[in-house]
Sequence to fold (321 residues):
Amino acid sequence: MRRMLLRSLFQLVLPALAVACAPEAEPTDVLLVPSRITYPSVGSALEYRCATLDCHGKPERNLRLYGSSGMRLAADDVPGHGETTDAEHDASYRSMIGLEPEVLSLVCAEGGNEPERLSLIRKARGEEAHKGGARVVRGDDADRCLTSWLAAATDEAACARAAEAQSE
Amino acid sequence: MGCTNPLQEGAIADLGPESPAIPLGPLHRPGQPCLVCHDGVEATELTVAGTIYERVDATKPIPDVLVRLVDARGTAYVTATNCAGNFFVRPGDFTPEYPMRVTIERDGFFQEMESPVNGEGSCASCHTNAPGSRSAGRVFLLSVAATLEDRCP
Fold:
């Protein structure tokens, strides 16, 4: 029953949210994903929290994240030098949206509702076994940045504050 | 027959043999990821350990560098490098709650690690000797032209 309800809801809501959450591919059986355009703000907020060389800045991780202070994408780029490149943001974005695509699509279709359905959120909050423990606190700037991105309404100010705070 | 850890065994094998010129102890294996072995089972447990060099592109280690570690609780712990450039922290002295910030200092020269350490106690796990896309290179103190007093035999 709940499944049917979800499906109906999905069918009803999908057209309305298609503008907010973009389809990953054209056309029919689409999975919705959060914005690639605003991802760099999210990536910056998570860089020191998640993407260091001793955490998700490792090729062995499922969620593989790149950044100027962590793992670099280009062979001749070195951690600690330069800026995070667009190609690195793109690679990290692909990692983020590729973790649980179906659940992500549901969250996205429902306007970011119940983002804790994603292990990305549960682990970041430390609500699920995570070697790195809690890296964000529910409702703090980094959490708001991440969840607002999933809701297709990226809170750029929260992302900027979260990025700034991690450098202190 | 106990369980084995093939990943750890492989990592230890990759480190190669001991140098015959250096006895087992605080001066051995500079520049290697200490906690691969120093886990309390294979060898004495350490929580944080590493090697500090004079320059990023030099192999000369430096002693008497103060290594200041500040963890997520705000607890600070300071230790110093020996003549191999090695420093190490035992769990009874300090077990950091990550993330941990690191600064190093000697004779007025200072370096602050740009990003925090989020869980890896071995410097050399990330700071391998050669800089590359997955390593910032050695941990080093001097980024300007300067000479430090040689204090080791």
Observations:
- Residues 24-140 of chain B form a domain with the Immunoglobulin-like fold (CATH 2.60.40).
